[in-house]
Amino acid sequence: MASKDEKNLAQVVEKIAKMDEPRRSIMQRVHEIIVAAAPELKPRIWYGMPAYAASASTPALVTLRNDDRMNLAITEKAGFRPAGGIDGALMPAAWFFETVDADTEQRIAQIVRSVLD
User: Fold this and answer.
1) What is the value of pTM for the model shown?
2) Does pLDDT of 53 surpass 80?
3) Phi, psi (5° rounding) for residue 42?
4) C-alpha–C-alpha distance, residues 84 and 88, integer Å
5) In sequence order, what are the beta bridge partners of 54?
6) How confident is the model at residue 18 (pLDDT cuts 50, 70, 90)?
7) 39-44: long-range contacts (C-beta < 8 A, 24 or more apart)?
8) By the 8 A CB rule, do 91 and 83 touch?
9) What are the Cα distances from residue 114, in Å, to 43, 59, 80, 107, 111?
10) What are the residues whose beta carbons fall under 8 Å from the beta carbon of 70, sequence distance 6 or more?
């Protein structure tokens, strides 16, 4: 019998597989980046979206959306810090993307690792 983590991972992979190309390939790549950057996060479905949490039974910390635009977001359950600089007390929480190049891959990995700090 598969574990809850294995079932949740299968649901995330299936959700991504149902997306239309070229978004399916892009979201699959983002999923791979997240899993590699923070293997301690557990994939799961959160409000119908691929998401990543500390455990199979805790709230999601990071979500992926495939709406009008593809989006990587940190949920309110993650620890936030003010951005500082020109953004002052604003707290970055969502990033839209259309493609994933090497720089974007690195930034996604940084963002995902930040929820573990």
Assistant:
1) 0.90
2) yes
3) -105, 125
4) 4
5) none
6) very high
7) 40/116, 41/112, 41/115, 41/116, 42/5, 42/8, 42/9, 43/8, 43/9, 43/12, 43/13, 44/8, 44/11, 44/12
8) yes
9) 17, 16, 9, 10, 5
10) 23, 26, 27, 30, 64, 96, 97, 98
Domains of the chain with CATH codes: 4-114 (3.90.1150)
Which run of H or E residues covers position 23? helix 23-37
User: What's the whole-number mean pLDDT along residues 44-73?
Assistant: 94
| % pLDDT > 70, the chain | 99
Parallel/antiparallel/unpaired status of strands 49-53 and 42-46: antiparallel
Q: How far is CA 2 from CA 9, 12, 41, in A?
A: 11, 15, 18
Note whether 109 and 86 are within 8 A (CB). Answer: no
Helix (H, G, I), strand (E, B) or coil at 74: strand
Looking at the DSSP bridge assignments, the partners of residue 97 are 70
Average pLDDT over residues 72-87: 82
